[in-house]
């Protein structure tokens, strides 16, 4: 059998064909793009790639670099240092608007140019001008899983026409948002925007965010989970500039667009999506790209705010083994222990009290345990122990390292049933 996904995606490209919109021409080199190119790529958080259309066409990343550079600044400088300099409020204005906080000059968010220039300066951190560009090119390469290069023609074309960005950078320097030479920051930022990518590269970058910061193919841990959460939050509220609210309510996927015609979207835990088509609407966003995202969201139920399915029960099976004093209760857990699934487990044990002296939690089929799931499981183990039940854990994958319950009790942990039986 052939996977139906590529056929479906080809059908999406066909269904979204639209020749309205215009190429960006404020950067003359961008106006030379072939207006009819259209590509769509999906990469799952596990690294499966589905790609159709002109997915070998290279284009410059432009504003889609902004969320990643913001992530890099957070990772390098820490949250406090970054939040001091760049706010996280939607501006509701165009990408190149001078959206600065009154009195302090702090840019409203890192997705508009003012915030992106400030984020670039944070990465530069007073070093030689080339250092930030190289850090960023190398970060984007790790995210894409291949070496990316800079399109110097597009960079110099933008640089020759960068009056507005130069004005914004000078204002930021005036407010002492950074202390570097504004021209150097603009040049670095423009070169960051000129890194060349395909939709496959972008979807891989998006999938890395979907996978909590781990590149799904190389398995490199690029961003911490905290950084990913911050980046996705800002993308959801500010990624689509003055269309952010409309986008979140209709498409419902945290996203970022760029003036060369790319759009990325991230479905946390599931999917990275990238579209490319260079004709833009009035917001500076790809017309066909917006249509494709809308269609995918509707057809595949990707809207983030769609009431999620009730979390799968993590209690797969409960049974009592043996009789009398030798008997034990076995609780086989499965899937993901987050808040609601752990709550279901707690309720199951509260509603049907454990009547044996011994209890085994078997975590062999557990996939992940979030910190809240760990806390709730350890709390249960501590309370069961307090009630006189001797609890042991089977944990072949090491999901529950150093299980201190806080009740002066640490359960024994075994890697298998055989190990449990061998040790009695
Ligand atoms: N380099 C572009 C600029 O600063 C990026 C804008 C965008 O992609 O939205 O004007």
TrEMBL record:
Coiled coil: none annotated. It is an enzyme of class 3 (hydrolase). GO terms for biological process: glutamate biosynthetic process; L-glutamine catabolic process. Its EC number is 3.5.1.2. It catalyses: L-glutamine + H2O = L-glutamate + NH4(+). It holds the Pfam family Glutaminase. GO terms for molecular function: glutaminase activity. Homotetramer. PANTHER family: GLUTAMINASE. Belongs to the glutaminase family. This is Glutaminase. It comes from Rhodococcus sp. D-6. The gene is glsA.
């Amino acid at each position: 059998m052939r996977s139906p996904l590529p056929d479906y995606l080809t059908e999406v490209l066909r269904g979204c064909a639209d020749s309205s919109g215009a190429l960006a021409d404020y950067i003359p080199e961008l106006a030379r793009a072939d207006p009819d190119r259209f590509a769509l790529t999906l990469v799952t958080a596990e690294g499966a790639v589905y790609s159709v259309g002109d997915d070998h066409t290279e284009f410059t990343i432009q504003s889609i670099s902004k969320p990643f550079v913001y992530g890099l600044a957070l990772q390098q400088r820490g949250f406090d240092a970054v939040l001091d300099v760049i706010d996280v409020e939607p501006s509701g204005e165009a990408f190149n608007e001078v959206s600065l906080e009154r009195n302090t000059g702090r840019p409203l968010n890192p997705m508009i140019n003012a915030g992106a220039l400030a984020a670039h300066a944070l990465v530069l951190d007073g070093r030689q001008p080339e250092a930030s560009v190289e850090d960023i090119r190398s970060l984007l390469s790790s995210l894409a899983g291949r070496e990316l290069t800079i399109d110097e023609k597009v960079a110099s074309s933008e640089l020759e026409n960068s009056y507005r960005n130069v004005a914004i950078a000078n204002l930021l320097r005036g407010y002492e948002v950074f202390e570097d030479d504004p021209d150097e920051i603009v040049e670095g930022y423009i070169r960051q925007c000129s890194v060349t990518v395909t939709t496959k590269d972008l979807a891989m970058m998006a999938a890395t965010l979907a996978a909590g910061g781990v590149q799904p193919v190389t398995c490199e841990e690029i961003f911490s989970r905290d950084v990913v959460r911050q980046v996705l939050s800002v993308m959801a509220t500010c990624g689509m500039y003055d269309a952010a609210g409309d986008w979140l309510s209709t498409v419902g996927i945290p996203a970022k667009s760029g003036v060369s015609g790319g759009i990325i979207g991230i479905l946390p835990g599931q999917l990275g999506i990238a579209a490319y088509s260079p004709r833009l609407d009035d917001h500076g966003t790809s017309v066909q790209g917006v249509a494709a995202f809308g269609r995918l969201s509707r057809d595949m139920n990707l809207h983030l705010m769609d009431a999620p399915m009730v979390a799968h029960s993590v209690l797969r099976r409960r049974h009592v083994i043996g009789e009398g004093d030798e008997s034990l209760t076995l609780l086989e857990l499965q899937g993901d222990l987050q808040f609601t699934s752990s709550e279901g487990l707690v309720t199951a044990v509260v509603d049907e009290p454990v009547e044996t002296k011994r209890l085994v939690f078997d975590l062999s089929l557990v996939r992940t345990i979030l910190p809240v799931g760990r806390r709730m499981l350890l709390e249960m183990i501590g309370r069961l122990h307090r009630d006189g039940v001797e609890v042991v854990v089977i944990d072949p994958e090491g999901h529950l390292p150093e299980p201190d319950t806080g009740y002066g009790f640490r359960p024994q942990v075994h890697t298998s049933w055989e190990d449990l039986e061998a040790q009695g």
